[in-house]
Amino acid sequence: MVVLRTVGLGFVAMVLSMTPAPAAETPQALSLAVGAALENKAEAIGTAQAFDPGVAQGSYVKGQLRVATGRFDLDLVDASGRHLRRLADGARGTVEFQFMAETPDDRLIVTGREPGTYALTLDRLVTRADQLPAAPTYLSPTIAGVAETVAAGKATDGFWAMVEAQGTPLVEAGEDGRKIVTFLGRGAQRNIRLFGAPSGDHEELQQLAGSHIWFKSFDVPDGTRLSYQLAFDVPDVPGTARDRRIAILATAKADPLNRHPWPAKASDAYNQDSVLELEGAPPQPWLAENGNPTGTLKTLSIESEVLGNRRDITIYRPAGFDPARKDTILLFVFDADQYLERVPVPRMLDNMIAAGAVPPVVAVFVANPDRAARARELPANPAFADFMAVELYPLVVKETGVAVSAARTVLAGSSYGGLAAATVAMRHPEVFGNVLSMSGSFWWSPPGTPEDRREHVAGLIAAGGVLPLRFFLAAGLFETGAHGTAGILDTSRHLRDVLQAKGIPVTYRDYAGGHDYLVWQGVLPDGLIALFGGDRP
Question: Percentages helix, strand, coil for the chain, rounded to the nearest 5?
Fold first, then answer.
């Protein structure tokens, strides 16, 4: 580094003020080259020195003001002394600064706020001609290759032929056994959004410059399973961030290039998802129609005095049902519509019971009166817990003749339903002895809860006694938090730790997926087997 001592050259006294000096008082400028440190000294308050960085208009400049003693201001002015920008205010020690040159003759002015010494250095200069975006990098080798094809002015017909032949998403080898998954789209005018991305967010696909290829790549575990939709040309609607986020539902539909729609038959693509299942995804062996003896379903309507509303419940009885069997499991499942239709739990139970994976199961599917009631009842509502224990449970016993101990009764649910499974059992452990929570909303706490007391269920468990309960908890690796808040994954793991510390039995499993019924249709039987497989008590 070149060091030039310029003490005594061109100093002009200026009155110390937050307002820069007028043009007439601008001192003669010293040339300041990149990499050269100019040391200087202010012997009195207001002593100023000008420096000429010699940069063209539009150049990016980065540097340092290193103050050894005293305090200094650093300002950017034009050739006439007109103030453009303050870069350092009463600086001590080392201050980094950067600016874009607004005129061809910008100057730097260092003014003493207190007498002392300093050094001024330019570390970097990038002219406008050199301000080029970094060359794009691609996680997917295939996308990197087609980018070269497009850059060479060649057509992408071969790429699309390959995609149509093998279907989407593209799956390529990553590092350490992981996979690179690339979601693709074409035909959009403005944007394509990915609903159900491994990031847990509504990701935007990127358009490959010079082409009609839209893509987004992710590095994921080999065991990934997820369902997703693509939303083409999502409208930008006025309103809140939530309003704009919900607008994705206006165009979200199954991926037209994906070979695995879910469900296989649907009224239209907007009511259908697309499936990604990698080779390492855990098996879901209980879904198929295997010709096993089938149970029966009966739907009843129940009026609740506690809640002041009416709802349907559907009771599943297994083939060859014998209410006198003492090993029968009594299973309550929230969100009945989803777990009777989207997730075929009755067929799954038929298969599991026939295979001897679990003892006979009587299942009660509890419907929500409406969406508003779900949001009101399931998140830790004591009245709903009382309904379950005092009104619904006796009705089921009367209807089925099954009278089992709490140790053979289990509450199961996902999301808010997983939260309800825990809080209902915690309020009435004398009735419900097992909790099967799938991606439970354990981030939830009552409105007004202080920041340091969030995670309502974990707090209750930690502060209370040892409950006679057993837990099966599951969460998706993609269910992480956002904007500094804990997500389902972190809060489920934390609840596991609290339960273990309290001495309450808990089985916990991660799944390489998100907030997804496609995942939960495997979690539910896993949980039943973990709690009751081998006829555990």
Answer: 25, 35, 40
